[in-house]
Amino acid sequence: MENLPFLLRPHAQLCPSLPLAPALNSSRTQVTPIPRRRSTRLSTSAVAAKTTLRSKASSDGEDDDAFDWLDQWYPFAPVCDLDPGAPHGKMVLGLNVVAWHDRGAGEWRVFDDVCPHRLAPLSEGRIDDKGHLQCAYHGWCYDGAGACKFIPQAPALGPPVHKNSKACVASYPCVVQNKILWFYPRTEAEYKDVLQRKRPPYIPEIDDPSYFTAFGMRDLHYGYDILIENIIDPAHLPHAHKGLVPKSCMVDNNDPGRYERSINSFTVEYDQEGGEPIKMKIQEESVTGFLCALPGGSTRFTAPCTYQGTPDNKVATAGKTKPWLMLVALCIPVAPGRSRIIYAFPFNSGPWVYKIMPRWFIHLNDNSVLDSEHYLLHLEERKYAEKGLDNWRDACYVPTSSDRMVVAFRNWFRKYCKNRIGWATSQPSELSPVLPKDRLLERYWSHVIQCTSCSAALKAMKALEVALQVASVAVVGFLAVAKGTLVTSTVHRTLVVSAAVLCFAASRWLADFIEKSFYFQDYVHAEH
Q: What confidence tens digit (pLDDT) does each residue in 307-319 have?
């Protein structure tokens, strides 16, 4: 089977499972930041950076290649989902940060999400009429460099207290690349020009005008390492997402419950979901990630966040041979037991209808795919924590070639990260209790509120629902008023009553569609 093209097929709208927690922290340790000094205001990342995030030197010498979590670029969000007229707050690597558009410079900025005055979140603020970021609590205003420009409570002719360094907000280096806002989690002066030394991973197909790319994003209640492990595991797709992805094998017409394929004159039986062996070969491994070859293409993990799947079969575009489709997934550590995924399927060949399909419609299936495995991974993470990540190979039985990418990631995480994430701030060492499904699979806060397309669609559908209800009542009222005058026959009355019933039924159907598409829909594996 050409496995990779199957996984990337755009009409399947596949999005490998999206988890919501970053690390299992099986080591039961914390990253403890040094207390801030009152004389100088430092960002949380700058403080945490002064602790030893790398593991202590080990006897095998592996520490020389220890992965530095703070010397990396992290994706914040696709620019298409960022409103330039408002600030946006998120947690990344344990940091609470806020992104906002500096109108004067025409650029996006990323700050610590805390006002120096009384530590209120700046993400709950606004952009004032001068283009400054304004705190909603007391109105302090900041420019694109993080300098305080105005304190309403300070006398106009008094001391310029707003110029004190303690009134400034820590600003992170950031850049828009591949239509995504990235930031670097260090605020010290020596990292101001870090972009000259190191850039985020670049994927040219996303910027290529011959490709169509629709982004998606979802917060997940399982950790970063669980998310990566799941994303790079193609073997789970026909089982965990049954009914949501196409089957990879042809069913025997004489036995609908049995899948067969002829291999070297032998008939081999597969399970009814279409699962089958996947040959994988790890070709490159280093502290920066690994490359894996599999039937139909290859996949690459670039630490810490970027996963790319590229098929071998290509198409000619503008005189050049290019992949017809790719899978790009950015896996973001948020906090212990939480992660975020940003994903896209750039493609330059296929039905034109996918190029005009609204993003919210694409996200309906994407979210169903994520929901179908969310509960499984949430529980799996807690089982891993019970066993301890250092005992992963002993606790898990991974005998087939289909597990090689998962094993490669676990080897990378153990060898270069000591099975832990270098959080930028102090984080709890224990995972939260198991969450109920209605919290795990909720879509509004984890996706809809962060997606401009889904938010707009939800607003429009709610308005249509109200309009249909009003129309049904208005039609009934019209029937009562016009009885014996305009509506004189049984046929007319039947038509008017039918219109009222249809409007009411449509409003009820739409309400159910809204609930399942934008708020919550359970996925029961036994029913698929």
A: 999 887 666 555 6
